[in-house]
Design brief:
The complex is a heterodimer of chains A (305) and B (660). Chain A is mainly α and 305 residues long. Helix content of chain A is 71%, strand content 1%. Chain A has one domain. The radius of gyration of chain A is 19 Å and the shape is globular. Chain B is mostly helical and 660 residues long. Chain B is built from 24 helices and five strands. In chain B, helix 9 packs antiparallel against helix 11, helix 12 packs antiparallel against helix 13 and helix 16 packs antiparallel against helix 18. The radius of gyration of chain B is 26 Å and the shape is globular. The two termini of chain B are 48 Å apart. The chains are: A mainly alpha (305), B mainly alpha (660). The interface between A and B is large, with 88 and 86 residues. Strand 1 of chain A pairs parallel with strand 3 of chain B, so a sheet runs across the interface.
Chain lengths: 305, 660
Amino acid sequence: MKILFTLFVYLIAPFLLIGLVNKAKALWAGRRGAPVRQPWFDLVKLLRKGEIISRTTSFVFRLAPPINVAAAVLAVLLVPLPRQQALLHFPGDFVLFAYTLGLARFMLVAAAMDTGSSFEGMGAAREVTFASIVEPAFFILLGTLALVTGDTSFADIFRSLNYSAGYTVLVKSLGTIVLFIMLLAEGSRVPVDDPNTHLELTMIHEVMILDYSGPDLAFMHYAAWLKSVVVITLLANLVAPSGIGPAGGFLFFSALFVILAFSVAAVESLMARLRMSHVPQFIFLMTALAITAFVVVLFFRYGRI
Amino acid sequence: MNGLFIGMGLIIAGGVAAALVRSPKRAVLLIGASALAQLCILPVVSRVLLGGAPLTVSLHFAGPVGTALLLLDPLTAFFILIISIGGLLAAVYSHSYMQMYALKPQYSLGGYYVFMSLLIVAMMLVTLVQNMLLFLIVWEIMSLSSFFLVSFENDKEHVRRAALYYFTAMQIGVAFLIIGFAWAAWLSGEPNFAALHTIRATNSSAATIIFILLFLGFGTKAGFLPMHTWLPLAHPAAPSGVSAMMSGIMIKTGIYGMLRIILSLGLPADWLAYLVFSGGLFAGLLGVMNAIGQHDLKRLLAFHSIENIGIIGMGIGLGMIGMVHHLPFLTLAGYLGALLHVFNHFTFKSLLFYGAGAVYANTHTLSLEKLGGLMHTMPFTSALFFLASMAISGLPLFNGFISEFAIYIGLAKGVTTGHALLDLTAITGMSGLAFIGVMAVICFTKVFGVVFQGESRSTPAHPLPEVSASFLLPMFFLAGLIIFTGLAAPLVLPVMKPAVFQFAADADVYAQLEHIYLQLSRVLWLFGGLTLFFILLRTMILRRKKIAQFKTWDCGYQAATPRMQYTASSYASSFQELIGKALPVQKHLQQPDGLFPETASFESHSEDLVERFLVRPLVQTLQGFLRVFSWIQSGRTQHYILYGLIFLILLIVWIIGVRS
């Protein structure tokens, strides 16, 4: 089941997510939209093409796509299927998880700076600025979950979560919102970033990969989509009820996957991207909610703050 | 321990010989002597480091020093290993780097090598000597020799200013140490560190104050918050080999001092552990925040030293917290993280300073806004700098992650133990460390992007090719250490065991840690394998494809010039806006004036909060008070002779009249 799930995450989920989101957005807007399979076609097309590479670039630009994919692939292995053990797990694996994504970000940003284009520099600066809010909030949330459960690895934390005291419902719901915002921020979706924009000044993720083409662009897209799926898997782990078997976990994940895809599409259809200067405020919501969850736990555990 | 003494003698002899010979290749003498010294020092040191019996030598001095104990235990051995290797690397690096001063008669290269060898040996002695008075003496030798190295280019005003600032900071630091040690020696009645623990039992409030005094003194050397303000001045002023040695090794003697005090004095009060931990956290945050706003490459690196000392401080604080609550896992993870980070910071920070020196040797500037595109002319330096940037950002596959992971896992374990204060501390610490990590990523993508990537911002008349082998050799060696420690953590942990066990000898818990690291390493190897696989896959896919070279996509604008690239300031500005007042940016704007404006300029630089709100007001208040006595300083030699005479007469009167 674990292997099957991992293959599903690698080969189907990333494309399905983007396909579903785009389809839902199109339907919402009254269009028929591209088929859900379109991201597969796009990627295969890109893999068949040749490339144009800027003369200004160096080895960093060429290394970034494969390293980004490798990091996303590793991140999948570290996150468990709901109510199961992850393929790779050890105490403190969530630290490696966050830092692996950090390494991918470092390469992505360095590759953007490699082109010497000021647009890409702008995107890079925004990416790291927003990441600087996301990552500490993620650690506050994971630390809080470790505090609730007394465990230090992803699978153990999520498994014990259901057998903990009643107030974990509160922690879970706060954590859900935190991870949903993380999904929007890390997945470069509205209201943080707009994947459809065609004006370089307003882009974040898209502008950083502006100079990529052909197979390298395919690598970059795949890594970014896979990262979104990983966050969804985390969310599924957090909210999955106890007592469902591996198959139930898989079903639960699939259902949640579709719901989240539609939620992302709904957010994207209902609101515009925030002004750049307002994005940090939105992401700070993550920090605020994570701290709230922590305070709740402290209050219930010790009866005082 | 004879091998150690022979090695020290060799290093001094090499330094003196290099000073006496007047040849451009004189550094070879110091290099040769240092290399020989390694053969004497490393066997002795590694035997103790790997768990051999600690070595002691007892020396008897007449006068106030009394019996002086020299102790080589695993902790000392660990530090001497770093000092010894680091000294050799700095000597090799200086061979080429100092060539740019060889033809200028105003610089004393001979003095440079003498003080360099003296600094290396003094640092070794600092970690060996257990006698408090003798310790202060070798401590001062270390501070003074590094002062002369910082003031090497003393014809420049900013260098003199920085050197004097450094000198003053060191004297303030040593004043704390003198008071602390004098009091401790008076209370315990023994001149050696080992007797310090008796104070804790007899007089715990005095022990607390002594602990704080000594931590302040050692913290000044280490650049620990809030005594760090000398670092960003002294590091850029010194020649790069010296900056690397000071940042990579010398400030660690302050860390050594703290650890030695914890070992000998113990913890007189529980809250000290939390104080040290939060001090480390704040130092880490403040250091890297300030680094983001800097435009001078070496000044920026100096702020990163403050950050990394902060991370080491977090490790020490975590270890102390573990001692307070009797949680051996936290103690071992904390001290392991701290010691590993001492070593790791030595590798990547030295490499970064050597890289910065190579940039300076080729371009004669360290201003981020003028550099750019060095990747094309200096491929090796760039690649090595890139590696070190990833390591210092704590990214996996490199050694910075290995040491930070120990602190993370200790904190994560701390959350699960059920102390409200510890929970709060641990979660703040984890998210703080994550924040430090992200900011380091911001800072080093900025540095690397602006200095090495893109195109050159100011076109030099003759772009110089890659630097010579003597520049690159130490850098390659350090890069090897970075990768080895990053991937072979299970081999490194047994080496650290005896040193860490001095704080808490719990074999079971250490085995747990080793097991965690084994699992971590397997995953890291898998990650390395995945990376290689996807790199190969990319190459395979692209092998038959047409790859065209073209200019960077300019979004339709046809007249882009290199000066339009994103600069360091613009890259940092979105983050600076985010954190706002924590990083005050000073702007100097001269607007174009009139119909035919002649000059206009804009300049911005960020300021250190501690410097602005703590150090400067303090210094100004002191100055106001001391100005009352300024009439004494007339500047005339005759007056000073008169003062001496008056003092002598008073002394004679006192001896004859009062004492008899």
